[in-house]
Amino acid sequence: MITRQLSFFRLGMWMLLFIGIPQAMIAQTAPTLSGQAEIYLLSCSPGQEVWAHYGHTGIRVLDPLTRRDVVFNYGIFDFNSDNFLWNFVRGEIDYILGVSSFESFMQSYRNENRRVISQKLNLSQEEKASLWQALVINSLPDNRTYRYNFYYDNCSTRARKIIERSLNGSVLYHYEPAYVSMREVIKHYTAEHPWTWFGISFALSSLADAPASAIDLLFAPELMMEAFEKATVQAHATTTESSLQLERYLVNEQSILNEIKTLPDEQKNSLPGPVVLSWILFALVLTLGLQELKTARRYQVADALLFGLAGLAGLIIAFLAFISVHPVTKANYLLLWVQPLHLIFALLIIYRPFRHSKLFKTYLKINTPVLLFALAGFGFLPQYVHPAMIPLLLSLLSRSLLAWTNPLPKSLRNKHLPGQSSGKSHRNL
């Protein structure tokens, strides 16, 4: 609880720094840069908070002559805004371009023990002035809010595009990414956060597994930093500045402003990961099923809990696929077996007549081949399957297969059908 409170305190301070400062700061800045001004791309390593797992990007403008040293940051959001969580799930959340002093920006990353790498952009004076003016205009109250998209419109993509538009030429990226798809990038940055990766794996559809271009992968700040390091600018036309060649490197200097400090090992969370817990669940479900076969009874509460959870997960996936505007959640093959109908089925189990009806077994019998197809589909469907999903599917499958064994409910076990022998012998007189 204390850690969470501290996290929200840091977030509140962050908001004060990046939202409260811009009005006064921009009002006091001159519209032009001096000849000594330099502009840098700042790339920050991942943090521990969920929203910080993928790193961050900022643009620093340093002008020693006018003592201007500010950072433009497209990654500002407000947890306390109206309907924040609902808008985030729908994919309709707004972010803000904030401006802070360079020292305030750096202090926040020192406190979080995160690496900050600075890349000085190789720009002409005309390009610096163009980028500065674009940033100032972009940070005005009427312009600073934008509709955030994790992959295509975030702190990194905004920084990259505004830099590209300010250049007298086109950027040639000679970057060869180590990842093929957007999902692989997310997997890399959540490797140390297994539950986060498990949850994201449910939400991402097959669209996240499609081969992505190198430019589309630059939504990750560290990948964009690597791309900038090797990028060149191909000039559109000759220029009067002799120092500017027809093709030049985009970055001419790189340095580490803050390095990660080695800290004592913290006590790790003892909670098992999703893979271990899902296999434990399957073992329990399988044991329960074997007990049912021996005793000829059915523990419907297990069906209600298992299918209820699957139905809730299916409801979330269906919402992301059909209602939200997230671009990479639309074609999710998990809906084959993690689907909202399971929730209705789980609620009907509460009513005793339904548990002993043909509809109960019919649903499970129909569900069995669907689950078998989904299990086989792990091998050929174009979507990544998290390892924890396999035992979850097997758990649902084992409960469905019991419908084919036709175990007699306990309430009917000692009753006899009409015309059936009672088991006592009779002698003809």
Could you please describe the fold and organization of this structure?
With 429 residues, this protein is α+β, with helices and mostly antiparallel strands. It folds into two domains: 9-177 and 214-258, endopeptidase fold (from Nostoc punctiforme), CATH 3.90.1720; 274-408, no CATH class. 44% of the residues lie in helices and 14% in strands. The chain has helices at residues 2-20, 22-28, 84-90, 102-111, 125-138, 155-165, 182-189, 194-203, 221-230, 274-295, 300-322, 341-348, 352-355, 358-377, 389-405; strands at residues 38-44, 56-63, 68-76, 94-101, 116-121, 145-147, 169-172, 232-235, 247-249, 251-258. The strands form two sheets. The chain has a seven-stranded antiparallel beta sheet with strand order 6-4-3-2-1-5-10, sandwiched between helices. α10 packs parallel to α15, α11 runs antiparallel to α12 (341-348) and α14 (358-377) runs antiparallel to α15 (389-405). The chain is elongated and about 85 Å long. The N and C termini lie far apart (83 Å).
Task: List its traits.
429 residues, alpha+beta, endopeptidase fold (from Nostoc punctiforme), seven-stranded antiparallel β-sheet, three-stranded antiparallel β-sheet, 10 strands, 14% strand, elongated, disordered C terminus
